[in-house]
Write a structure and sequence with these properties.
The chain is built from 11 helices and 8 strands. With 266 residues, the protein is α/β, with parallel strands linked by helices. Strands 1, 2, 3, 4, 5, 6, 7 and 8 form an 8-stranded mixed beta sheet that branches. It binds S-adenosylmethionine (SAM).
Length: 266
């Protein structure tokens, strides 16, 4: 909130409204918020739970932010926030195989169901090289090759359907040391299914196009490759970084452990 310099009557876009935590903080300071989320369930829950005449909620992908901001507000936005990734509720309850802990869920992973690509499709259809690319490129997984090979082996007799099927394959390669590999493989698939890197690039471009001169953009990323996209964007567009370096999250809190915040202005 400090970095965005939220002020009463200011215009803000919360590009990842989620469960409304950041949005509530902006509303408390008297700002107007356009809250976007591509996950319909998040928007529906907020529509029931949050009532404020400074708040507009829209289901949509932040890649389309330039179209989702009303014409009268274009070029007049004081601050835009991206808090990337998933929320706690989605990991726990969405029922689409986003967490390796929910063994019985289908391997879907779509945040919105308008797209056709699912994790199940990737696991059952992508070639070994394509699977390797997904794990190496999206998560820098060192065992990407071995896991891709093991997936293709599994497919000779069975099809991937549920979280447990994928966990068993990871266990086969990693033995007792599967711990962080689960997180990286699930993250890599989620990024592929939801085109997260491409959306971030489009979202940043769009955000800049609706921002007021001197307006602020804040991005919280949870992944070094996402942070690199933000860093490169700031450099390429010659923007002013307000925080000199990315501010790291609280390492004691599991959810914030890998968080990096960058704030910059036009
Ligand atoms: C970490 S949560 C945000 C939590 C939120 N800041 C809060 O205080 O509750 C990330 C949210 O971004 C949404 N999301 C992810 N990619 C998106 C995209 N391309 N466009 C819009 N929303 C997206 C997810 O559905 C999720 O609800």
């Amino acid at each position: 909130m400090e970095g965005l310099q939220v002020k009463p009557e200011g215009r803000y876009v919360d590009a990842t409204v989620g469960e409304g935590g950041h949005t509530s903080a902006i509303l408390e300071k008297g700002g107007y918020v356009l809250g976007l989320d591509r996950n319909k369930e998040q928007i529906m829950a907020l529509q029931k739970g949050m009532n404020n005449d400074h708040l507009t909620l829209v289901e949509g992908n932040f890649a389309d932010i330039a179209k989702l901001v009303p014409a009268k507000d274009k070029g007049n936005i004081d601050g835009i926030l991206f808090d990337l990734g998933l929320s706690w509720a989605q990991l726990k309850d969405l029922g689409r195989g986003l967490s390796y802990r929910n063994l019985d869920e289908p391997l879907d992973m779509r945040l919105d169901q308008s797209g056709e690509l699912t994790a199940e499709y990737i696991l059952n259809v992508y070639s070994e090289d394509e699977l390797y690319e997904v794990f190496a490129k999206n998560s820098e997984e060192v065992k990407a090759k071995e896991i891709a090979e093991s997936i293709v082996n599994y497919r000779t007799t069975k099809r991937y359907k549920k979280v447990l099927d994928l966990n068993n394959t990871i266990d086969k390669v990693m033995g007792a040391n599967a711990g962080k590999t689960y997180s990286r493989i699930y993250q890599a698939l989620r990024i592929e299914v939801n085109e997260e890197f491409e959306n971030l690039k489009k979202g940043l471009d769009g955000a800049l196009s609706v921002l007021k001169p001197g307006g602020k953009i804040a991005v919280i990323s949870f992944h070094s490759l996402e942070d690199r996209i933000v860093k490169n964007f700031i450099r390429e567009k010659k923007l002013k970084q307000i925080t000199k370096k990315a501010i790291a999250g609280d390492r004691q809190l599991s959810f914030e452990r890998s968080a990096h915040l960058r704030i910059f202005s036009s």
